[in-house]
Amino acid sequence: MLKGILVGLGIMVVCWMIPIAHFVLGPLGPFIAGYFGISYADGRDESDAALALRYGLTLGLVSFVPVGLVVAGLAAASQAWGWFDFSARVVVLIGIGSAIFVVYTGSMACLGAMFARLRRRDRETQTSSP
Length: 130
Description:
Oligomer: single chain
Shape: elongated
Number of helices: 4
Strand content: under 5%
Order of helices and strands: HHHH
């Protein structure tokens, strides 16, 4: 599962780094990451839905780490050097935005992983039937 998560995070980062295309690929990055990253996840014993859900949840939780680091860095810079003047309302909005990003990442990765597993199962049934 760790290899699949790292592949997914790499795909998401690459989707944000491509100039001009990042306006389209950035929001689609978690879906694309789920679609390709699930093939590296080990879950032969699990059902497709359980594996996709576990993959999406894990990718969402792992994406919380960089978001949390950025928010903590902004808060530390605000306190130490006075770079930003955050009111309580702005802090709450940043927290809500971070939570929405994590939920969005997890749900889109779960959808991409489920779509990939269903396509794979469909291809397997087409090749096995006469």
